[in-house]
Amino acid sequence: MATSSSAIRTLDKSGNEITTVGFTRFGFDSEVPIDVLRSLYLRAHYVTTASSSDTKEEHLEEQALHAQFSKGHVAYQSKSIYHPETQSISYTTLSRFPPVKLLAPSKRKRVLVTGGAGFVGSHLVDRLMVLGHEVTVLDNFFTGSKTTVSHWVGHPNFELVRHDVVEPFMIECDQIYHLACPASPPHYQFNAVKTIKTSFMGTLNMLGLAKRTKARFLISSTSEVYGDPEVHPQPEDYWGHVNPIGPRACYDEGKRVAETLAYGFHRQDGVDIRVARIFNTYGPRMNPFDGRVVSNFIVQALRGEDMTVYGDGTQTRSFQYIHDLVDGLIALMNSDETRPVNIGNGDEFTIGEFAELVRDIVENVQREDGEEPRRVNIVYKPMPTDDPQKRRPDTTRAKQVLDWEPRWTVRMGLEEMVRYYKAKMAEGGI
Ligand SMILES: NC(=O)c1ccc[n+]([C@@H]2O[C@H](COP(=O)([O-])OP(=O)(O)OC[C@H]3O[C@@H](n4cnc5c(N)ncnc54)[C@H](O)[C@@H]3O)[C@@H](O)[C@H]2O)c1
């Protein structure tokens, strides 16, 4: 039996129900109802938003109107309609967009999101769009996909541009979230030279744009700048322990030099920069085959295959849910903090424990859906080179300067992600 939206009750770390994500910080309101966001990434049979049932009649009326113009071929969505009386032509795409906030022009920001078709970027785009801002996505679709943001294509506040950030790009904007860079090891190691080029030249180009337009610039750096850390948990003042010539160096050193560039532009040219050091993040729209531990485990368990743990399973990781990250990124962007800020969830799990938790949740969701789960095995394989043993953020700075801390428990986030992958699987997407 499919789970209905009313059955999805999400409790935060303090046991309070999560009905909205976001908050007001530094005069910027980032709060939106969780159901609106869910309707963009979870399939309809899991969530029915109030608006979708309320507007059924309206929907039929609109369809009838379009059918009248299109002589019944409603499936062919875009139409050009000639109006002889006014000698004009109108175009329709039949696109329906979720309502977005109507902001006064003085409050509406023109936001550029590079890498906006990727996992993190698309959630940031959803949030900024629902909040009523004007969003331009710049992406070369290397690891991202148009489908992650296709629900906004055609919206007057939205623009999607295919562009590689290693080439310069000109646009007028107020804020730049610079996310473009492959983030998972198989993807960033696929073409190591391109990864370091994207990190260096891409960041150089986008900082140049920020300098010209006086836009505020936020870079999505990473906990990988700490390498295999000798300090635990890692505060922002820790300089890291990175192998500069290993297989992960194209990404780790790429992000380190990207940070260096950001501070160079800040000191020399006064560019207003923000540096987010993001720790492991997971959530819907993560590529199921990108080799990251969360997606690997869920997909294997859903398929009834053995779950693979690399190493002996005692290495620890912390995982943050995507909505917490988006809250943190928006808060940082709108704050005055120019020092690096760790954004991550400090709840630490051994990979072995985590595999068991995922297995448990997958079984629960299968039971909720009236299926009989089959217990899968957890198997151990050798650890890849340079894989850090321990990684946990010290988020004291984020708490102090942004008044931000993670709200989502790992379990709650995983449940949502399992539902998402399960729905994708049912549609043949996995
Ligand atoms: N997801 C995490 O756990 C995590 C952790 C730390 C840092 N980050 C950082 O956050 C950002 C987003 O990560 P993600 O998980 O969404 O990864 P992702 O691979 O899903 O998204 C990256 C996006 O950038 C685009 N891109 C890559 N190279 C490009 C180029 N040269 N020009 C234009 N677009 C390009 C890709 O097509 C994709 O849409 C990355 O900068 C990553 O380093 C992510």
Automatic annotation (TrEMBL):
Catalytic activity annotation:
UDP-alpha-D-glucuronate + H(+) = UDP-alpha-D-xylose + CO2
Instruction: Please give the SUPFAM superfamilies that the UniProt record associates with this protein.
Output: NAD(P)-binding Rossmann-fold domains
Cofactor(s) demanded: NAD(+)
Q: In which pathway does it act?
A: Nucleotide-sugar biosynthesis; UDP-alpha-D-xylose biosynthesis; UDP-alpha-D-xylose from UDP-alpha-D-glucuronate: step 1/1
Native species of this protein?
Hermanssonia centrifuga
The record's family statement is:
Belongs to the NAD(P)-dependent epimerase/dehydratase family. UDP-glucuronic acid decarboxylase subfamily.
**What is the name of this protein?**
UDP-glucuronate decarboxylase
Where in or outside the cell it occurs: the entry states: Cytoplasm; Golgi apparatus, Golgi stack membrane
Q: Name one Pfam family in it.
A: GDP_Man_Dehyd
Enzyme Commission identifier(s): 4.1.1.35
